[in-house]
Amino acid sequence: AEQVMSAIETQIKAEYGKLLPPVVYGSSTQSSETPASASFWSLFQVGLLRRTLLGMALWIIGTTVVFVFTVWMPAIFVQRGLSMVRSFEFTSVMAIGAIPGTLLGSFIADRWGRKWTLVALSLLQAVLIVIYGQARAPEAVLMLGFCFVVVMNIQIALSAYVVFCDDGMRL
């Protein structure tokens, strides 16, 4: 076991340029300020109120964007001249982007940090949706829609980390 741990620590030092912090035995992962059990209403008390409100806003906005995008896209595609079957094919391919988006979001969360990555993703989403609205070629519409859904789901995954991870990041 000691050899395995030494190999892991050597690999981490090579990748990140520093060693892991020492393990403190007998410590709890729970802070002394947090009770062992808490009620639902504790989310709305001073220590968690901003984080709770941010989480609510992010999830409401994110859910609304996902809902509007997926519900209205087939109708917009039909309006642009695609058949109903073809419009659902396009929407299905774009919806598949949620899977790699969520997976990428979970990997990006700790690698690049959350705050500025969310800002960059918001700007990227804005650019993608403007270009998407101007696209006319079916291949471009499909590719841009897929990319938009991927970025949107990366952002949703990162939003969960911002809200639920207490890493000292100011909100």
Task: Please describe what this structure looks like.
This protein has six helices and no strands. Helix content is 70%, strand content 0%. The longest helix is centred in the middle third of the chain and has 31 residues, at 49-79. It starts with a helix and ends in a 7-residue tail after the last helix.
Q: What low-confidence regions span 5 or more consecutive residues with pLDDT below 50?
A: none
Computed Rg: 21 Å
N-to-C span: 40 Å
The total count of helices amounts to 6
Number of strands: 0
Main beta sheet, described?
none
Can you tell me the overall shape? extended
Helix share, percent:
over 70%
* Beta fraction: under 5%
What is the residue-mean pLDDT, rounded to a whole number? Answer: 81
Helix-strand makeup class: mainly alpha
The multimeric state of the shown protein is: single chain
Order of helices and strands, N to C? Answer: HHHHHH
Condensed summary:
The protein has 171 residues and is an all-alpha fold. Helix content is 70%, strand content 0%.
Topology record:
Elements: H1 2-16, H2 49-79, H3 84-96, H4 98-111, H5 115-134, H6 138-164
Helix pairs in contact: 2-3, 2-6, 3-6, 4-6, 5-6
What keywords describe this structure?
mainly alpha; 6 helices; 70% helix; 171 residues
